[in-house]
Specification:
The chain has 18 helices and 17 strands. It is of the alpha+beta class. It has four domains: about 270 residues, BirA Bifunctional Protein, domain 2 (2-Layer Sandwich), CATH 3.30.930.10; about 100 residues, no CATH class; about 55 residues, no CATH class; about 160 residues, Threonyl-tRNA Synthetase, Chain A, domain 2 (2-Layer Sandwich). Strands 1, 2, 3, 4, 5, 6, 7, 8, 9 and 10 form a ten-stranded mixed beta sheet that branches. Strands 11-12-17-16 form a four-stranded antiparallel beta sheet. A three-stranded antiparallel beta sheet has the order 13-14-15.
Length: about 625
Amino acid sequence: MNAQEIRRHYLSFFKQRGHKEIARALLVPQNDPTTLFTGSGMQPLIPYLLGQTNPNGTRLTDSQTCLRAQDIEEVGDNRHTTFFEMLGNWSLGDYFKKEQLNWFFEFLVSDIGLDPKRIYVTCFSGYDKYKIPKDVESAQIWQDIFKKAGLDHAMLDLKTEKQGSLIGTKDARIFFYQHKNWWCRSGSIDTMPIDEPGGPDSEVFYLFDSIPHDLSYGPKCHPNCDCGRFIELGNSVFMEYLKTKSGFTKLPRKNVDYGGGLERIAAAAIDSPDVFKISLMWPIIEALEKLSHKSYAQETNSMRIITDHLRGALFLALDGVVPSNKEQGYVMRRLIRRAIRFSFKLGIENNFLDQISDVVIKLYEQDYPELKTQQVKLKDILNKEEKIFRQTLRKGIRELSKMKDQKITGSDLFRLQDTFGFPLELSLEEAFSQNIELDPKWRKQFDQLLIEQRTRSQTATKGAFKGGLGGDSLIHRKYHTATHLMYQALREVLGDHVIQHGSNITGERLRFDFSHPDKLTPDQINQVEAIVNEQIRADLNVSWEEYPTDIAMNEMHVLGAFGDRYGDRVKVYRMQAKDKDQPFSLEICGGPHVEHTGQLMDGNKKFKIIKEESSSAGIRRIKAVLS
């Protein structure tokens, strides 16, 4: 059964069990301001998991296209992709653990034909800190399932991956882990924002025992080992908890949120640990082999990256994204340009995207016919970006040629990549071909500049709002507003050289990186705290207006964050007392904030800096709370 057939069988399987098939959501979330992309099947359904009534009923199923930009550097191994499809089924207060786990096992073994002897599962080991019990119920259900299948069903409590790498499987089939078997969008039970749903989960792994264990991941292998022998096929989340200020409370009803990777299930169905050999990707690899006259075995990494990135770029174009220098468009541009970079390595230099996009569209057009109907438009978007990038590459080569009579430094290489979009790999290759000498310390300098850039970079992992805002609850709004106040206070105390270099906001604290050469003195910290608290007590009005970017930056001298990319217009937030002619804070930001700074007090709470430290060379970091 190929990947396309598995998708259809899955939807049919759950429709036969009373589920309503729902359409996929767009890759760009429509009602979720906290993230750039739809990164999981449950994301569009959060209102219903929290208790709202879904018009399609209490049993739902779909195949959701997803994109996780944070995985971009992982692409190249046998199982990671930025773009993937998540097969999903949900119970909104209807069935629960017993039905879900039995159905998923039945689907994998009876419908897909997987070998049950190679199926292993994990469950939540509990967390005393939050008074959340061990999920013994799921483990017992799995024991019954395996017993009926005539399989061993021993259990082993591992809790952590490190413990697993030391102990191994010990011939068990059911394993308990702690953090690995709790699911929420933030990824960790400890970093969940207030008002976020989550719950214990049960993951299903498939063992490719023909692959030898890689000892670099520890002396022994276990289901959550990253060596590639165990590949996760699906995750049944039992969504029954809500994070609150005081800990966790139960949701109004018990929900099931299942998500399974179509690509990984399809790989297991053909008994291949390499997801790129499935029917949705291998034809792309074959086309690359034909165009490059090189084999997949020779250029595995390059062909995997191109295959993954172009699928993602096409679906982003389908969902209304165009390449740009901000937000979703920036990620799309990065995917396309990385694909083109690796096509150069393969020796493919002409009409690359035009030819490969036809192959991708053909693979998906039966189940996503809109790709075919919009084929001309989608190819035009990709082809224009390829043309622009090839011009960029030519500029980079010209700039590099100007350095023939000098040693190229890490700073030169970083400028070529950051300013001209000329990738490091191509700079090094071109320098070699032109016999241009490299400074011996170029790598250290380049890596340091890259680290600083990543610190300030706002991508999908930090959310759509400027400032790394991880949520939209009242406490997030308070901390986001406090960050603006602190930014201006730092400039008043330390000087106008202070520029934001990134921030991160959770429901528990704010973190702020800024340019300053020295450690802050206790007196300076006290001054900053005093200014912020003074503005909180002054109950400044918080408002915003949109302005043309050049006017905001050059005439109004509005503050921004170093490295941020802005479009033609920006949203400018103003924090100003009613009796003052000038605002205390005037800053470019995407929101959201409270309506007036007095809301930060919340009784007797005050702004307090709890840590001040170095982030990188010339960059300091502050962590602060409202307590």
